[in-house]
Amino acid sequence: MSTDNNYENMQTVFWTEYLRILKGLKEPVDKERWHMAPYETNAYYSITDNEIVFLAGLLQSPLYSKTFPDSYNYGALGSMVGHEITHGFDEEGRLFDQDGAFRDWWDKEDMKKFKAHSECFVEQYSNFRDTRVNKNVSGINTLDENIADNGGLEASYYAYKKLTREKGAGPKLPGLGFTHDQLFFLGFAQVHCEKSTKQSLLIDILFDEHSPDRFRAAPLMPQQTSTLEACSWVPILQAGGLGKVRVNCFPKAIATWHGRESNPRLPDLESDALTAPPRCPLYV
Ligand SMILES: [Zn+2]
């Protein structure tokens, strides 16, 4: 390693890691080993270990704080927890059993429903076009992540509602006027706020198994319209994510919450609303 050649340092890091992985092919599986470093702002589900891991780098503001309302924490971190759990039941996860062994353990009826819902997601996401690079999302390449996003958000919302039934919603945040359902979705949108160059976005849309963040945040909302008490919030997120307005307005609202900025520009329901994309029900 040297202090003046980042490229060579990165090559050394990649080669060392590559050789370590190759060496591991001849060794017994170490199920205790983490696949990411604790300081990363990330989380994962491992199909072969059947485990989910949330790294220390993730468990902090703005994704989580014990001082935040439950609604926000469930929308932000809770939906990520749900996302990772749902990976155990996506196109890949469904093929591995509780011990991480490769085994198709679903019955035919479940499989049929799963396929029908999957096809709906493929069609829905393939229709999303990112106008910044004039490319459509690949609904096939991103299917597992889209399933996890939708399942995670819905599971977390139900978990939050169960919590409030048991212990109440708690006081609203002073000065903001948001309901707790709205805060839930603010928290969720905050996770997917992005700022990227066109080049980086193009690489993501061509090769990343995740949809671009604006499509991860926004299209999920219409899935929920039958169950949500926060329906009036739906067009806001939907509009932000479909490129007409902004997902980026949400950090502004959050910034205000943290006291760094006054008079946030909240989306205008009248002018920002768009037609809802097709709805893919998760549970029937
Ligand atoms: Zn994922």
TrEMBL record:
Source species, domain of life: Eukaryota
Gene3D superfamilies: Collagenase (Catalytic Domain) (3.40.390.10)
MF-aspect GO terms: metalloendopeptidase activity
Signal peptide: none
Any one Gene Ontology BP term: protein processing
One Pfam family cited in the UniProt record for this chain: Peptidase_M13
Peptidase M13 C-terminal domain sequence ranges: 42-221
Family matches, as CDD domains: M13
Gene Ontology CC terms, in alphabetical order: plasma membrane
Family listed: Belongs to the peptidase M13 family.
Protein name per UniProt: Endothelin-converting enzyme 1
Organism per entry: Elysia marginata
